[in-house]
Amino acid sequence: MPDIMTPESLRKQSRLPSSPLAKLSLSHTDDPVIPALEDYDIHPVHGFLPADPPPLQRLPEYFEPWEKILDDLSPLLIAGALRKAVKQLPVLATDVLSTKREWQRAYLVLSFIGQGYVWGKNEDVAEVLPVALARPWYDVAQYLGLKPVITYAAVELYNYRLLDTNGPWDLSNFAVMNTFTGPDEAWFYLISIATESAGAPALPAIVACLHAVVKQDLPALVANLKIVAEAIEDITKVMVRMYEKNDPHIFYHRVRPYLAGWEHSSELPDGLFYEGVLPARETLKSPSEHCPIYGVKGVYANKFDCPYPVQDSVENLATVFAGIKIEGTYRKYAGASAGQSSLIHSLDVALGILHHPTKSTKTSPPLSPTEPHANGKSSKPPINHIHEMRKYMPGPHREFIYALERAPSIRDFVNELVNTPSYDPALSDEVSRMYNRCVEGMRAFRDRHLQVVATYIVVQARKKKEVGHLDVPQASQSLRVQQSLQARGTGGTDLIPFLKQSRDETSEARVQLDI
Ligand code: HEM
């Protein structure tokens, strides 16, 4: 039987010596460091979903003013009373938060309230976020390695619970804790939560594949690639269930606007003004000093020590709004997208699927001068919208992806195997076919995802006559509606060319077989 390693055995062996077998060169793996899942806040069974304990459902008593607003989020939006309620909030201290789950819950709560505050319901956008929201949201996001904007982490990772705590981790038993609007939105989140769960077995299998590569243990490699392939196929099966309970019209007109950010927003061309968040706060929370939860684990205590690689470029501003001078900073952030799923990034990186600079958008500067390139081959990474999405992942999960980039390349190994006839041809054939099955699975996932995006965004954008908010006066519809009619990604991408590029790049990773 091939050796499928337990997380504990992997952890013990996480730093491996150079391979004693010299037949395959493994040139870039002289001193391979293979990441251990638990060092990156990844559960061995449930992957990127927080588990043991699961996400917190309510913050401690001190934070009731936030929780009470969240309880009534939808009614407050409908009544047009959310902004008034937020303006009455006290500025609560975030250092009262203690456990990791409390920080995560605080981020979820502030993200829902913050997005509701900015976009309102059929109201003009709010350009200034009051200090009682802006400062804690910024600090909590900084602590978790996230950004003070709604992200995949807020609406998916930290937002699930199990209906029956002893039941299965799938769509028959997941529930979401919070939405802006109701059931269609809940289903939208549930699908992603269930894809995280379906894909979770791939994560220990990826780590086991890396060990198998270093040990040149082909049976173990085949067995673990099979687990990866099956997980990818399961992700796709879950994703296409989106159609069952998420109505495209409701999604496009009612839900999606709340998930938008302010990076390329025509309504917020300068971004959002965060009252009370001054540039000095950028350096406030170095993880070693202020992040006991992650800092003590030593996640960042390596030579790539770069927990928050994207420092926001901001200036200290005093701006006058409605005759009152307030201090703070304008900040631009993209909105929530499943493109921020660390699972899909991990699969891409582990399989050596490379994404090149997005052709249809202006190339952004590198995320950080220290950001490693796939497998450490070059100092200047190519930047694609997909890479930019990493800014919006929890810090440890982003670090895991960087760690995978520094680990041995499964694809290079498979390629060398195919070109080394001295190896057992039947076995090397099996390895390469299983590797290609993984790549083809990723391609199929992206094909089906394109169809989902066409249904939920492109078709909806074309149906101009069916635009929602018909009860809203023309003037207050204008910009919001114009913007929602554009079939663009939350990061401002030209959607379909970007997604097609991403799909086509996936196929390029296939290894060539003789037959
Ligand atoms: C109604 C359902 C969905 C819609 C409308 C949708 C829409 C989009 C859009 C507009 C993008 C472009 C990038 C961006 O805006 O940031 C994107 C990217 C992406 N989405 Fe979705 N998505 C949906 C469901 C999902 C699900 C369930 C997953 C599964 C995890 C997923 C995974 C991804 C990934 C990985 C990307 C990055 C592009 C890539 O890797 O090829 N999406 N999606």
Structure overview:
The protein has 515 residues and is mainly alpha-helical. 46% of the residues lie in helices and 5% in strands. It contains 21 helices and 6 strands. The strands form 2 sheets. The chain has a 4-stranded mixed beta sheet. β5 and β6 form a beta hairpin. The chain starts with 6 loop residues before the first helix and ends in an 8-residue tail after the last helix. Protoporphyrin IX containing FE is lined by residues 188, 191-192, 195, 239, 242, 251, 337-339, 341, 344, 386, 446, 449, 452-453, 456-457, 489-491, 493, 495, 499, 502. Residues 1-24, 357-383 are annotated as: Disordered. Residues 15-24 have a biased composition (Low complexity).
Total count of strands: 6
Judged by helices, strands and strand pairing, the structural class is: mainly alpha
Rg, nearest Å: 23 Å
> How can the largest sheet be summarized?
4 strands, mixed
In whole angstroms, the N-to-C terminal distance is 28 Å
Helix content: 40-55%
**Count of runs of 4 or more consecutive helical residues:** 21
Order of helices and strands: HHHHHEHHEEHHHHHEHHEEHHHHHHH
Strand order of the largest sheet: 1-4-6-5
| Ligand types | protoporphyrin IX containing FE
Query: What is the 3D form?
Result: elongated
Mean pLDDT: 82
Q: Give the uncertain stretches in residue-range form.
A: 1-30, 284-310, 360-382, 467-482
Amount of beta strand: under 5%
Organism: Spizellomyces punctatus (strain DAOM BR117)
GO biological process, one term: L-tryptophan catabolic process to kynurenine
InterPro entries: Indolamine_dOase, Trp/Indoleamine_2_3_dOase-like
Region (Disordered): 1-24, 357-383
